[in-house]
Predict the 3D structure of the following.
Amino acid sequence: MEVPSRIGVSQIKGIKGEITVSGDKSISHRAVILNSIARGKGIIKNFLESDDCLNTLDSMRQSGVEISRDNQNNIVINGKGLYSLKEAEDIIDMGNSGTGLRLMAGILSGHDFLSILTGDGSLRKRPMDRIVKPLKKMGADISGRKGDQFAPLVIKGGNLNAVEYELPMPSAQVKSAILLAGLYTEGTTRILEPVRSRNHSELMLKWFGADIKLGEGEIGITGGREIEAQEIFVPGDISAAAFFIVLALLTKSSEILIKNVGINLTRCGILTILNRMGAKIEILNKSKVCGEEMGDLYVRSSELKATTIFEEEVPFTIDELPILAVAACFAQGETKILGARELRYKESDRIKTMVTELRKFGITVEEIEDGMIIEGGSNLSGAHCIGYGDHRVAMSLVIAGMTAAGNTTIDDTYCIRTSFPNFLDLLDSIKCN
Ligand code: S3P
């Protein structure tokens, strides 16, 4: 089904069955980017066919990379090496995707031609100075609107030098932009990471044969070495699975098995937090694909109790905080989400948007500077909500609506296409009314 711009839902009894969620968004972006600058034939299986990842694919096509499909619809990339990209004939539009834009900025900074990167209204409001600063330090001629704060970014790259850079915020996007630019330097770029964030770039760079060394709170990447194209299987996206996990926990008669989900430790904060809240979640059939951990998640209805989510846990569950806020509404006691200021810089200000929308369901929520405090344990009543063009907010509200008495409508939901186009179909296939 096409994703509509208004979604109506009503309370359900539960969800039952076995599902697979679409491929991981972070890994899909990286598989395209690395295969595009590698040497040889790269194949991507279980690629996430969402607007964000398709924009990254198009940005590489615009930069001269040969990309096709095989007879199973897998992505096939004919990589010609680190320096094979060409100047795009037009502005490159990354749509809604912060990951796409920031990672491409890192790659294009290594090239001595002109690139202009832009995005939609939401992306053009998100901070870009966090990548402009380190990329300038590496020698790229890069600037953005309003004193380098915002896209469009204009980049004239090439001739980069290795640097040492301490990340001022735990951001995998910033880290990855620097790592990718680091492929184009002579010498070793050192990134100091006081608080760890998702490590897909590091794992994949290693898998492709880059000269990368991983230490405690520190990463070293040495440029100049070509990387080799790979066949990548993208595990299911835990950020997509999160909506089904929470819905299963909150509804009375639920039991689901979610197959082949990526369970990289730097992404599993949601599982640790929910387990602490009393959730019945088991990980079965653990395996490893292309350097990434994968497993099946078996989830059953549970009684939850409140918890406090602290700053150091936030990066490992940053994208799941909106749906965790929904879970907190059902948990006995007061749940605190602390140290999560980064939420304000996502596709919407997720602290403000989630607090505003949860209140419409009758929940008592306090907005604090770096998070929120949620009074759990009361029943939700159906509401008329807004998704703010933010996919994770919109999907969290759909789930909230399915647990709330009566009917709920959510406006501005078209954005769900950016990360999870078959979200509604999958929900329909397992829900019990
Ligand atoms: C991502 C990193 C995170 C996350 C985003 C995807 C990535 O952002 O919120 O959805 O793929 O690197 P930050 O690194 O900016 O926190």
Remarks:
- The mean pLDDT is 97.
- The longest strand covers residues 280-289.
